[in-house]
Records
---
Amino acid sequence: MNASILRSTLILGLTAFVATFALSHIKAITHPVIQKQERQKQENALALVLPGYTIGEERSVAVNGGSFTYWTAEKTDGPATMKAYAFIAEKPGYSGAIRTMVGVDDTGTVLGISIIRQSETPGLGARVLEAASRNTFFQVVTGRAHETGEEPSPWFQEQFRGINAAAKIGIVKKGDWNEAMREELLQKNEVSAITGATITTKAVKDGIEEGMATLRTALEEHAKAQEAPAR
Amino acid sequence: MNYYREFTKGIWEKNPILILGIGMCPTLAVSTSVSNALWMTLAATFVLIFSNIIVSLVKAVVPSHIRIPIFIAIIATFVIIVELTLKAFQPDIYKALGIFIPLIVVNCIILGRAEEFASKNTVLPSILDGLGMGLGFGLTLTVLAFFREILGSNRLFGYTLIPGMEPATIMTLAPGAFFTLAMMLWGMNALRSRKRR
Amino acid sequence: MEIKALFVILISTIFINNYVLSQILGLCPFLGVSRKLDSALGMGLAVVFVMVMASFFTFLIYKYVLVPYDIAYLRTIAFILVIAGLVQFVEMVIENVSPVLYHSLGIFLPLITTNCAVLGVAVLNTEAGFLTGNLGLLKAVVQGLGAGLGFTLALLLMAGIRERLEIADIPENLKGLPITFITAGLMAMAFLGFSGMKI
């Protein structure tokens, strides 16, 4: 009886050992590729939310059990240098956390957002990433596709440009958005929700508001630390 | 041993989803687009074939009463290989398939074939069995996805079909999955009963 | 305040994001055991127990072993082996406490190991943002509880309907799986009604 338990344990242990051994090799091979990709994705997101800006430094502050990362950036426009910041907002959505890269200038106006991670319902919350593709299937198949150039940015994210993140952002249930609606909505600092995905919309909006508040505090503390150098 | 038969049985006669009724979890959730369906088939078939190979090789030395955890460990190893490979080389697909990649490890088809077939047969038939089952799984998944993507999101392979048309989103959600599969099973039953007569 | 967050998790996993009818996980046992109400109830409770225990142990292992030692990629194999062990344990307990239930559940009891929903909730716990912030472990366990209760709810509803379907006049080719799936589809549609719920 004991011999058989011993034998079973040994075989299980051996299997686990072999498995982990093989996997750690695969991990070693794929790790650098994965790292490079995540860096690339981050750079792409930063470029998207801070168009035309040169990224400065990346800073992290500890907050509420986790860490808040933000980037400084600046752009020279003739004689003036404009400062901007980017941060990652994370808030639980309908199913899982939604991660948004947000770019703001130093008045708190949003320069752009890019939703980098979400697992919302396809057809509902996942429409945050929906961008009308320029070509239809038939055009692609029969070779009559238009020159694609740059894919249009998802309307849900595009509408955040110009929103004041430092103030309360309102949500209207319009279900859609186009450039013509921009002025009216920006005046009231409102964004249009996706039909049937108010929770997702709220998660993105709350994340931006909270992230902005955390950014403010972090910047103030950083400034204070600069003024009073450590002894 | 009729090798050809071992391969083709998984496609029609013993189609895992439509006849054996296993492997349904990923089927319904992943068939929202044809692209997802094809990649899931690739991933699951890879795991199926290789775990069949290993199980077939070690079947003599594995004590019967711990064979299930051992099989699970073997399958899980290949699933992690797929996870890491997809994450590194196809990150968009990795994101699209989401939790269903690790869930390949509990796909009844893979554990089922390891237990039913690979643990009782040699390597070559096991490979063929895995290939056939994977193909059967993939075909069913793709047909399902074809209907759901077209009707539910007005797209095929990510490209819009009829510009301006509002699709029946419910097809990409759970109810659409259930209904479409019900139709396929009904069709399958009708075909089989006609054959019997 | 945190109590509200826990309540939200519970309500959303049971109704809004029901694991079977909304996230389409846990189908195999859902179709296999939902023929009779009493075995459905037994199965459901066993799954709740396994999910709660699994959520607890897998979350701890992920947060305090896998992540700190940078072996998070071993999540799948670690989780499934923990679940397999738990199910073995539950099997032994049920066999001793209620042999009747043990026999009526039959093969489906060890099959809880391959229940997508159990591994699913373990994995979803690690991706729901519970790792940072307070009460992460409690939130994970509550999510496991909610997932199990939602699964049981769906199972009981299906069993109730199937018991009636047995004596209904169904066309030959629709009997068995096809009609069950149509029923499930209708149930899923009904549960879609929860999706706009504000808590």
---
Amino acid sequence: MNQAIDYHAILPEMILSGTILLVLVADAFLKQRRKWFTMPLAFLGTLAALVAVLTLIGEDRTTFGGMFVVDDFAVLFKTFFLVVALFVLLVSLRYFRDGRFYQGEYYFLLLTSFLGCLLMPSSRDLLMLFISLELVSAPGFLIAAFRKDDPRSNEAGIKFFLIGVLSTAVMLYGMSLIYGLTGTLNLTEIGSALSSPLPQGQETLMLAAILFIVAGFAFKVSAVPFQFWAPDTYEGAPVPVAAFLATASKAAGFAGLLQLMFVAFPNQHEFWTPIFAVLSIATMTIGNFVALQQRQVVRLLAYSSIAQAGYMLLPFALVSADAAVNQEAFAAAVTYIIIYAVMTLGAFAVVIAMTRESHGLLISDFAGLSRRSGVIALAMTVFMVSLAGIPPTGGFWAKFFVFKVAIERGGIGTALAVVMVVNSVVSLYYYLAVPRQMLFAEPEHDRPLLSPASVTFVTVVATAAVVAIGVWPELIAHFPPLSTLVAP
Amino acid sequence: MTWENSAITIATLLPVVGALVIALVPRDKDTMVRALGIVFTGVALVIAIAIAVDFDYSAGPGLQFELNTEWIPAISARYHVGIDGISLPLYLLTFVLSFLCAIYTWHFVPSPGKTKAFLGLMLLLETGMAGTFIAFDLILFFVFWELVLVPMYFLIGIWGSANREYAAIKFFLYTLFGSIFMLLGFLGMFFRSDLGGGARTFDIIALQDYAAGGGFSDGFQLVAFAAVGLGFAVKVPMWPFHTWLPDAHTEAPTIGSVLLAGVMLKMGTYGFVRIALPILPYGAEKYAPWIGALAAIAIVYAALACLAQRDLKRLIAFSSVGHMGFVMLGIATLTTIGINAAIFGMVAHGIITGMLFFCVGSLYDRYHTREISEIGGGVMQKLPYLGGVFAFVSIASLGLPGLAGFWGEVLALLSAFNPAGILSDHTTLFRVFMVAGGIGTILTAGYFLWMLQRVNMGTVPEKWQAQPLPDVLPVEWVSWTPLLVATVALGIFPRLIFGVTQEPVDALMHLFGG
């Protein structure tokens, strides 16, 4: 039986796959000095894929027998992932060119990971979700270990890999149990199959299966207690890879989680909302309190992203039978993910600029930066203040939307909002650690910080975006509510 | 967009534009930067004065210069600004003090210099402070409220004195803690509001009307008042949430202290009058005795603490806690006299304590110490004009009749004698507060006069006798004279304030059956 494939729906993925192969082949034929040409190639391919995604705006297409869906949710996330990809490519260029890295292979692996990210929001099928997740993770294991002569990089890759495959194995087991219980892999069909209660023994098994699947995704988004890999992996990996993991990889995990919980398991919300509440509280709290101790800036950003994942998990704990509140929670989570990625990318871009001077990347290496490079210091201050959630930056509105839906939900929502409030205040202390060094401390020398043009460009654009969203949040806030997957 | 609509927006946002312009000026053009600072604050002040002149004082309690447009439809937050009799004095105070600070900066930027950043942050601070007094949408109010935290953190942390980093982070964390709880309270009010057809609002005026119609349940009001009250209480600061203030005021540079004491503390008390009392009247009624108690404690505690201070600036900082105690006592009585007294007290305190910090700053410039024992005395002999001004302002601060400080204090105490009808069960309690306030007044006079004796009177110590210390400089006279004149003017013509605030406060008190 021949099923027609909707080629327009998979056009972005096809373009990106073509780019991936082109990059690999080009790398084989380029001389060593010219290996960096693979980056502009990758950049153009990603740009073409982005244009292809933009042609899909407003479309509602299904292909591959319902496994692959293109709707507003998918288009929003694909656009997001491709823009993040463009920025990660920009900040990677000089870093990988000046260090002794395999460049063509890096861009090949990075784009493959982004291919997985592109597939994730379209995956409405357990198997597709698994494939997307693996496609995001597997190249990540390799590029985390890309600094071949640095033992910490190797350690980063190994830790990431071992914990990653363990979590994915558990998740796969859960997925197979759900298949056994419902007879289908399609998320919508699972949702309807589970809308009526199962016999007692099967009910418990199903709840356990949901738990296993959540565990797999919880690893991806570095929720406590699955977060142990994150600080070491971010610290050991090349910094652009850490930026990728903190933004795109985490967002892909959340995209998958959103589809799962809101399409496949909405009727079991009484079971999993307390679990998400505990996950959220534990993640925020541990992320924030351990971050207070950090002296190395990449580890600080790693724990910061763990804590931010806690804030992003909070809307999941607010799901109830009220569809309007569920829609708002969904929109709040998506808004937070987008704004978080902008801030974190910017912060990592500044750190990448610092790698030229400092190998250890301690916070004290930032001393007096405001006197040496005012623009970079200002940008970093904006990012840190935004991550802490102070107006008028984008980070405040991200937190605001979550507070809003939490208070609207009431009950557990109010308690969670209070915990998030206390955590936000605590987090301010360590977020200000880098600005304190930059602005209050004396620099070792007066020479300006030479930062590659592409990195400065990304920093400036991210700063402008954070401030623009801060002053006019409608820029971002308009889109997520239009793309919720909540069944009315 | 007409003058009516846009005047207050222009005046409020002009300082931010000024900050951006200053950011573009090359680093070495120091004089130009200082001149730009004076120009932008000056123009903003002129617009503010024009608004005050254009204000229709006989139009009754409604909003004037109102503008209400879409801002963030996704959360139903609107850009709603306006000005009425309660906001106008504080709004004007912000611009006046900022302008005088910019003039003061012409002469002196504290170490480590960096005039661009200094003035840029000060202008950003000015926008945040001014915006708080004109915002009539809870989200807009919150954004302006939080906007002042980052500039003040950097002003204290970079240009402050020895213990500045600790003071700055303490200030930031403490105030942020209170304000995020305030945000939760605002969200609660939003979700409980119902304008018919499921419509909800952040609009302060609409919420006031909704509350007047009995919209919010009693239980909710108690919780919400605690939440927003916490945020305002930390800012005021009310005892026992005041511990950030002595450090922040002492370590801040002179104009940081002037703006912090002169305007930023008023944001808290203004929040009580504008938001907490009208929108949550039942909560206000139940918490009023507690607020009064904390206010009375603040008055006495602050006075006792002042008596123990050896650092001149820290003494003035604690005196702020005491004065804010009188303001909160006036608010806690929920009477028209009390609230009028509170607003008067806010403006008077802003002028007088702003002036006090200027004086202490100038003393520090000359003596390079804030320790009373180090200065040793004899300032009246060595620097007669400075000593005279200092004595004048101190006496104004302790509440001498005929000067601005008197009316706020005495009317707050008077209002405590007869609290509002709904508080009649607690009349005895409030009269105890009144007595405590009276004792506080005596102690206030005590510490100020004792300080003047130790600093101003007596002979000049050996080590200072030979030093050629300049008396009040012309630039200092220019920045101080308006405040000195205002101190006398408000003392003799309290109607300058009461004429403006009387009607709106009356309208407000109708919610309490006043």
